[in-house]
Amino acid sequence: MAFTVSLTGKTAIITGSNSGIGLGVARQLAAAGADVVLNSFTDRPEDHALAADIAAEFGVTARYIRADMSKGEDCRALITQAGRCDILVNNAGIQHVAPIDEFPVEKWDAVIAINLSSAFHTTAVALPMMRAAGWGRVINIASAHGLTASPYKSAYVAAKHGIVGMTKVVALETAEEPITCNAICPGYVLTPLVEAQIPDTMAKYNMSRDEVIKKVMLERQPSREFATVGQLGDTTVFLCSDAAAQITGIALSVDGGWTAM
Ligand code: NAD
Q: What is the position in ligand 1's atom list of the atom closest to the CA of 226?
Protein backbone atom coordinates (compact mmCIF):
# COMPACT_ATOMS: atom_id res chain seq x y z
CA MET A 1 0.00 0.00 0.00
CA ALA A 2 1.34 3.46 -0.87
CA PHE A 3 2.29 5.70 2.06
CA THR A 4 -0.13 8.61 2.08
CA VAL A 5 -0.54 11.45 4.55
CA SER A 6 -3.65 13.63 4.81
CA LEU A 7 -3.21 16.98 6.50
CA THR A 8 -6.66 18.28 5.54
CA GLY A 9 -8.00 20.60 8.23
CA LYS A 10 -4.52 21.43 9.57
CA THR A 11 -2.99 24.90 9.30
CA ALA A 12 0.76 25.09 8.67
CA ILE A 13 2.84 28.23 9.18
CA ILE A 14 6.20 28.22 7.42
CA THR A 15 8.57 31.07 8.24
CA GLY A 16 10.77 32.42 5.43
CA SER A 17 8.75 30.73 2.71
CA ASN A 18 8.74 33.03 -0.31
CA SER A 19 11.66 31.09 -1.82
CA GLY A 20 13.86 28.01 -1.58
CA ILE A 21 13.29 25.31 1.02
CA GLY A 22 10.46 27.12 2.82
CA LEU A 23 8.44 27.46 -0.37
CA GLY A 24 9.12 23.81 -1.25
CA VAL A 25 7.99 22.71 2.21
CA ALA A 26 4.84 24.86 1.94
CA ARG A 27 4.00 23.33 -1.42
CA GLN A 28 4.39 19.73 -0.17
CA LEU A 29 2.31 20.46 2.96
CA ALA A 30 -0.40 21.98 0.72
CA ALA A 31 -0.19 18.97 -1.60
CA ALA A 32 -0.93 16.83 1.48
CA GLY A 33 -4.03 18.98 2.15
CA ALA A 34 -2.83 21.50 4.75
CA ASP A 35 -3.87 25.13 4.65
CA VAL A 36 -0.67 27.15 4.57
CA VAL A 37 0.60 30.52 5.75
CA LEU A 38 3.62 31.80 3.83
CA ASN A 39 5.90 34.44 5.31
CA SER A 40 8.84 36.71 4.73
CA PHE A 41 9.84 40.27 5.63
CA THR A 42 8.72 41.78 2.30
CA ASP A 43 5.18 42.68 1.25
CA ARG A 44 5.23 42.57 -2.54
CA PRO A 45 2.44 41.52 -4.93
CA GLU A 46 4.58 38.51 -5.95
CA ASP A 47 4.69 37.31 -2.32
CA HIS A 48 0.87 37.21 -2.19
CA ALA A 49 0.80 35.68 -5.70
CA LEU A 50 2.82 32.69 -4.40
CA ALA A 51 0.04 32.00 -1.89
CA ALA A 52 -2.65 32.43 -4.56
CA ASP A 53 -0.81 29.96 -6.84
CA ILE A 54 -0.63 27.34 -4.06
CA ALA A 55 -4.33 27.80 -3.26
CA ALA A 56 -5.26 27.35 -6.93
CA GLU A 57 -2.96 24.36 -7.49
CA PHE A 58 -3.82 22.35 -4.38
CA GLY A 59 -7.34 23.53 -3.46
CA VAL A 60 -6.32 24.67 0.03
CA THR A 61 -6.43 28.03 1.79
CA ALA A 62 -3.10 29.82 1.42
CA ARG A 63 -2.17 33.20 2.84
CA TYR A 64 0.96 35.33 2.90
CA ILE A 65 1.67 37.28 6.09
CA ARG A 66 4.54 39.77 6.25
CA ALA A 67 6.60 39.53 9.44
CA ASP A 68 10.28 40.20 10.04
CA MET A 69 11.78 37.17 11.79
CA SER A 70 14.64 39.31 13.13
CA LYS A 71 12.10 40.99 15.45
CA GLY A 72 10.60 39.05 18.36
CA GLU A 73 7.31 40.97 18.31
CA ASP A 74 6.87 40.27 14.56
CA CYS A 75 7.51 36.54 15.13
CA ARG A 76 4.81 36.44 17.79
CA ALA A 77 2.40 38.56 15.71
CA LEU A 78 2.79 36.16 12.73
CA ILE A 79 1.36 33.27 14.75
CA THR A 80 -1.32 35.40 16.41
CA GLN A 81 -2.41 36.88 13.08
CA ALA A 82 -2.60 33.42 11.47
CA GLY A 83 -5.10 32.56 14.24
CA ARG A 84 -4.37 28.84 14.20
CA CYS A 85 -1.18 26.78 14.06
CA ASP A 86 -1.18 22.99 13.91
CA ILE A 87 2.15 22.72 12.08
CA LEU A 88 4.95 25.22 12.65
CA VAL A 89 7.97 25.07 10.35
CA ASN A 90 10.76 27.36 11.55
CA ASN A 91 12.70 27.78 8.33
CA ALA A 92 13.74 31.45 7.95
CA GLY A 93 17.49 31.75 7.82
CA ILE A 94 20.40 33.84 6.63
CA GLN A 95 24.15 33.25 6.41
CA HIS A 96 27.22 35.42 6.89
CA VAL A 97 30.79 34.20 6.37
CA ALA A 98 33.78 35.86 8.08
CA PRO A 99 36.60 34.96 10.51
CA ILE A 100 35.39 35.36 14.09
CA ASP A 101 37.75 38.25 14.87
CA GLU A 102 36.37 40.17 11.89
CA PHE A 103 32.74 39.05 12.22
CA PRO A 104 30.51 42.17 12.20
CA VAL A 105 28.50 42.41 15.43
CA GLU A 106 25.32 43.37 13.56
CA LYS A 107 25.67 40.28 11.34
CA TRP A 108 26.14 38.06 14.41
CA ASP A 109 23.00 39.56 15.98
CA ALA A 110 20.97 39.17 12.77
CA VAL A 111 21.98 35.52 12.19
CA ILE A 112 21.19 34.58 15.81
CA ALA A 113 17.88 36.51 15.74
CA ILE A 114 16.59 35.09 12.43
CA ASN A 115 18.00 31.53 12.59
CA LEU A 116 17.47 30.87 16.32
CA SER A 117 15.54 33.42 18.41
CA SER A 118 12.67 33.58 15.88
CA ALA A 119 11.92 29.91 16.58
CA PHE A 120 11.79 30.60 20.32
CA HIS A 121 9.20 33.34 19.79
CA THR A 122 7.03 31.48 17.25
CA THR A 123 7.08 28.24 19.25
CA ALA A 124 6.13 30.05 22.46
CA VAL A 125 2.95 31.40 20.83
CA ALA A 126 2.14 28.32 18.71
CA LEU A 127 2.32 25.67 21.46
CA PRO A 128 -0.80 26.88 23.35
CA MET A 129 -2.71 26.77 20.02
CA MET A 130 -1.53 23.19 19.41
CA ARG A 131 -2.52 22.22 22.96
CA ALA A 132 -5.99 23.72 22.43
CA ALA A 133 -6.37 21.79 19.17
CA GLY A 134 -5.05 18.55 20.76
CA TRP A 135 -2.36 17.95 18.11
CA GLY A 136 0.76 19.68 16.87
CA ARG A 137 4.01 19.44 14.99
CA VAL A 138 7.02 21.77 15.34
CA ILE A 139 9.67 21.24 12.66
CA ASN A 140 12.85 23.26 12.77
CA ILE A 141 14.90 23.49 9.57
CA ALA A 142 18.40 23.34 11.06
CA SER A 143 21.40 22.24 8.95
CA ALA A 144 24.31 19.82 8.78
CA HIS A 145 25.89 22.83 10.51
CA GLY A 146 23.63 22.06 13.49
CA LEU A 147 25.73 18.92 14.02
CA THR A 148 29.13 19.83 12.62
CA ALA A 149 31.14 23.00 11.97
CA SER A 150 32.94 24.87 9.20
CA PRO A 151 35.36 27.74 9.62
CA TYR A 152 34.11 31.32 9.20
CA LYS A 153 30.48 30.44 9.97
CA SER A 154 30.51 31.11 13.74
CA ALA A 155 27.06 32.71 13.99
CA TYR A 156 25.37 30.23 11.63
CA VAL A 157 26.92 27.17 13.32
CA ALA A 158 26.08 28.55 16.79
CA ALA A 159 22.48 29.27 15.75
CA LYS A 160 22.00 25.88 14.09
CA HIS A 161 23.52 23.97 17.04
CA GLY A 162 21.26 26.12 19.24
CA ILE A 163 18.11 25.19 17.36
CA VAL A 164 18.99 21.49 17.52
CA GLY A 165 19.27 21.92 21.32
CA MET A 166 16.00 23.85 21.56
CA THR A 167 14.31 21.11 19.51
CA LYS A 168 15.21 18.58 22.23
CA VAL A 169 13.90 20.86 24.99
CA VAL A 170 10.54 21.44 23.25
CA ALA A 171 10.27 17.68 22.59
CA LEU A 172 10.74 16.97 26.31
CA GLU A 173 8.31 19.70 27.38
CA THR A 174 5.61 18.23 25.08
CA ALA A 175 6.57 14.54 25.40
CA GLU A 176 3.32 13.47 27.11
CA GLU A 177 1.14 15.42 24.68
CA PRO A 178 0.14 14.66 21.05
CA ILE A 179 2.75 17.17 19.92
CA THR A 180 6.20 16.46 18.50
CA CYS A 181 9.19 18.68 17.82
CA ASN A 182 11.99 17.67 15.47
CA ALA A 183 14.80 19.25 13.50
CA ILE A 184 15.66 18.51 9.89
CA CYS A 185 19.35 18.94 9.08
CA PRO A 186 19.87 19.43 5.34
CA GLY A 187 23.23 19.27 3.67
CA TYR A 188 23.67 21.31 0.49
CA VAL A 189 20.28 21.88 -1.16
CA LEU A 190 19.75 23.00 -4.74
CA THR A 191 17.75 26.21 -4.16
CA PRO A 192 17.56 29.08 -6.69
CA LEU A 193 20.16 30.86 -4.55
CA VAL A 194 22.66 27.99 -4.97
CA GLU A 195 21.77 27.49 -8.65
CA ALA A 196 22.61 31.16 -9.30
CA GLN A 197 26.16 30.66 -7.95
CA ILE A 198 27.02 27.90 -10.45
CA PRO A 199 27.75 30.01 -13.60
CA ASP A 200 30.15 32.37 -11.74
CA THR A 201 31.97 29.46 -10.12
CA MET A 202 32.26 27.72 -13.52
CA ALA A 203 33.92 30.84 -14.91
CA LYS A 204 36.16 31.38 -11.86
CA TYR A 205 37.63 27.85 -11.87
CA ASN A 206 37.22 27.16 -15.61
CA MET A 207 35.18 24.08 -14.75
CA SER A 208 32.10 22.41 -16.20
CA ARG A 209 28.78 22.63 -14.32
CA ASP A 210 29.21 19.02 -13.20
CA GLU A 211 32.76 19.68 -11.92
CA VAL A 212 31.66 22.77 -9.98
CA ILE A 213 28.84 20.82 -8.34
CA LYS A 214 30.86 17.71 -7.48
CA LYS A 215 34.33 19.14 -6.74
CA VAL A 216 33.54 22.59 -5.29
CA MET A 217 30.01 22.69 -3.91
CA LEU A 218 29.53 19.09 -2.81
CA GLU A 219 33.07 18.48 -1.60
CA ARG A 220 31.76 17.55 1.88
CA GLN A 221 28.61 15.75 0.72
CA PRO A 222 29.65 12.12 0.07
CA SER A 223 26.69 11.37 -2.23
CA ARG A 224 27.92 14.18 -4.52
CA GLU A 225 24.23 14.97 -5.05
CA PHE A 226 22.27 17.96 -3.79
CA ALA A 227 19.26 17.34 -1.58
CA THR A 228 16.18 18.85 -3.22
CA VAL A 229 13.48 21.13 -1.83
CA GLY A 230 10.97 18.43 -2.78
CA GLN A 231 12.79 15.86 -0.62
CA LEU A 232 12.82 18.30 2.31
CA GLY A 233 9.11 18.99 1.78
CA ASP A 234 8.34 15.26 1.79
CA THR A 235 10.50 14.75 4.90
CA THR A 236 8.45 17.47 6.62
CA VAL A 237 5.18 15.80 5.56
CA PHE A 238 6.49 12.49 6.93
CA LEU A 239 7.23 14.12 10.31
CA CYS A 240 3.58 15.33 10.31
CA SER A 241 2.26 11.80 9.68
CA ASP A 242 0.89 9.32 12.23
CA ALA A 243 3.89 7.10 11.42
CA ALA A 244 6.09 9.78 13.01
CA ALA A 245 3.95 10.30 16.14
CA GLN A 246 6.64 8.70 18.34
CA ILE A 247 9.52 10.52 16.64
CA THR A 248 10.35 13.55 18.74
CA GLY A 249 13.49 15.44 19.70
CA ILE A 250 15.57 14.15 16.79
CA ALA A 251 17.89 15.86 14.32
CA LEU A 252 17.05 14.15 11.02
CA SER A 253 19.90 14.49 8.55
CA VAL A 254 19.08 14.86 4.84
CA ASP A 255 22.68 15.37 3.80
CA GLY A 256 23.91 12.60 1.50
CA GLY A 257 26.17 11.26 4.26
CA TRP A 258 27.86 14.56 5.29
CA THR A 259 27.48 13.96 9.05
CA ALA A 260 28.44 10.28 8.75
CA MET A 261 32.00 11.29 8.02
P1 NAD B 1 16.61 31.14 0.88
O2 NAD B 1 17.45 32.36 0.99
O3 NAD B 1 16.04 30.75 -0.43
O4 NAD B 1 15.40 31.20 1.92
C5 NAD B 1 15.46 31.88 3.14
C6 NAD B 1 14.08 32.38 3.43
O7 NAD B 1 14.13 33.12 4.66
C8 NAD B 1 13.57 33.33 2.35
O9 NAD B 1 12.22 33.08 2.12
C10 NAD B 1 13.78 34.70 2.96
O11 NAD B 1 12.88 35.65 2.47
C12 NAD B 1 13.52 34.37 4.42
N13 NAD B 1 14.05 35.37 5.34
C14 NAD B 1 15.30 35.88 5.42
N15 NAD B 1 15.35 36.85 6.37
C16 NAD B 1 14.10 36.92 6.90
C17 NAD B 1 13.51 37.74 7.89
N18 NAD B 1 14.20 38.69 8.55
N19 NAD B 1 12.19 37.56 8.16
C20 NAD B 1 11.47 36.64 7.49
N21 NAD B 1 11.97 35.85 6.54
C22 NAD B 1 13.28 35.99 6.24
O23 NAD B 1 17.49 29.96 1.49
P24 NAD B 1 17.18 28.41 1.73
O25 NAD B 1 18.37 27.70 1.24
O26 NAD B 1 15.84 28.02 1.22
O27 NAD B 1 17.21 28.36 3.35
C28 NAD B 1 16.08 28.02 4.13
C29 NAD B 1 16.55 27.41 5.45
O30 NAD B 1 17.26 26.21 5.18
C31 NAD B 1 17.51 28.30 6.23
O32 NAD B 1 17.23 28.21 7.62
C33 NAD B 1 18.87 27.69 5.92
O34 NAD B 1 19.80 27.92 6.94
C35 NAD B 1 18.50 26.22 5.82
N36 NAD B 1 19.47 25.41 5.07
C37 NAD B 1 19.72 25.63 3.74
C38 NAD B 1 20.64 24.83 3.07
C39 NAD B 1 20.96 24.99 1.58
O40 NAD B 1 21.90 24.36 1.09
N41 NAD B 1 20.21 25.76 0.83
C42 NAD B 1 21.32 23.82 3.77
C43 NAD B 1 21.05 23.65 5.14
C44 NAD B 1 20.12 24.44 5.78
A: 40
User: Of all atoms in ligand 1, which is nearest to the CA of residue 113?
Assistant: 18
Q: What range does the domain containing 89 cover?
A: 11-188+228-256
Per the structure, how many domains does the chain have? 2
| Ligand 1 pocket check for 186: Cβ under 6 Å | yes
Confidence of residue 194 (pLDDT cuts 50, 70, 90): confident
Sign of CA dihedral 154, 159, 160, 165: positive
- For residue 234, give the H/E element and its range: helix 229-240
Catalytic residue (one of 64, 152, 156, 188): 156
| 92 and 42 in a common domain | yes
Identify the burial level of 120 via C-beta atoms within 10 angstroms of its C-beta, where 0-12 means exposed, 13-18 middle and 19 or more buried. middle
Do residues 28 and 86 share a domain?
A: yes
Residue 204 shares a structural domain with residue 146: no
Using one digit for the tens of pLDDT, what is the confidence trace for 168-190? 999 999 999 999 999 999 999 99
Q: Look at residue 3 and tell me whether its pLDDT is greater than 80.
A: no
Q: How far is the CA of 2 from the centre of ligand 1 (A)?
A: 31
245 DSSP 8-state letter: T
* 213 residue type, one letter: I
Note if 156 is an active site residue.
Answer: yes
In a domain, 122, yes or no: yes
| Selection from 1, 16, 33, 20 nearest residue 237 by Cα | 33
Q: For ligand 1, is residue 221 a contact (CB within 6 Å)?
A: no
- In the reported structure, the alpha carbon of residue 61 is separated from the centroid of ligand 1 by a whole-number distance in angstroms of 23
Same domain, 140 and 242: yes
Q: What is the pLDDT of residues 103-120, one digit of tens each?
A: 999 999 999 999 999 999
191 lines ligand 1 (CB under 6 A): yes
Instruction: State the chain's mean pLDDT as an integer.
Output: 96
pLDDT band of 2, cuts 50, 70, 90: low
Asked whether residue 194 is assigned to any structural domain, the reply reads yes
